[in-house]
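User: Show me a protein chain along with its predicted structure.
Assistant: Here is one chain, sequence first, then structure tokens.
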Amino acid sequence: MNTIFLKSLLCCCSLLLLTSCVITRYDTRSAMVQATNLSYIATTEVSVGDWMVYTMSISFTDSKKPISLGDHYDKIRSKLPALGPGRWDNFAINAFLRKSEENVSVHFSNDCKDLVLTVSVPKTAWDSIRQYKLMDLPIVGITYEQAMDYIKYKQGVWNSCLKAKDTFRYECFLPTPEQFQIVQTKLDSTNALGCNMFNYVNSLCPDCPNGEKFLKDPIFNKTGMEPTYVGSYFPDAFGLYNFKGNVAEMTSVKGIAMGGSCMHYASEAFDGRRQTYVGLAGWLGFRVWYRRIPKT
């Protein structure tokens, strides 16, 4: 599961870039589980935080001083998802492109704990990103081609993390629809209390034990309409979060996703049901699958 590690430090900051001397840290750290004899699967969908670290990793090489991503928009534009108003995931990504008189410096690190880049972010926006855990929302609004580029990147990162004594390497991929279906488990859409077990259309339950709390929460009150956190709800029998609902997950076949989403009915998350797409969508994301290949 992706985890955010945020540490506030006092330091001396460049007055040219920052009026605040607070530095925080964002580490992306992925976990996987073995689902079949041949496949390992990331426990969570690819998140906004994962995607931002990826974008920075392949776009910049100098991590010594803070930069404003907005100054390099042309350089990163092709890696960004389709952005639009009114959604928290879009707010988070847009925050990195904005300029402000008061900023914080955020250190981004990858799965190997290597420092990728230090980015100047408006302080008020970063406060909201931390408070509402916006980096833990799934990445959407990307194309199949963008997802495949990320898969290649992830394979390189994971293999670079391996130690010399390791006898294997990783191959990252998107599953075929048949592979996805094999891992799908039977899970009722509601539990004994009538509460919904994953994020599908109209799944917000005001009468459930946490219903009132969810209605007041700025993220969970969008349940059944927008994606929620990648680590939400209970994991399935394999230990996978949101393998049903939340965002439909791309397969290796362009135009076919599976698992249902926040904008599909619960029945569409089961029994090999497929969701078709053209281009990109606000309900469409993906997660990384892995194979261990013996070193030769």
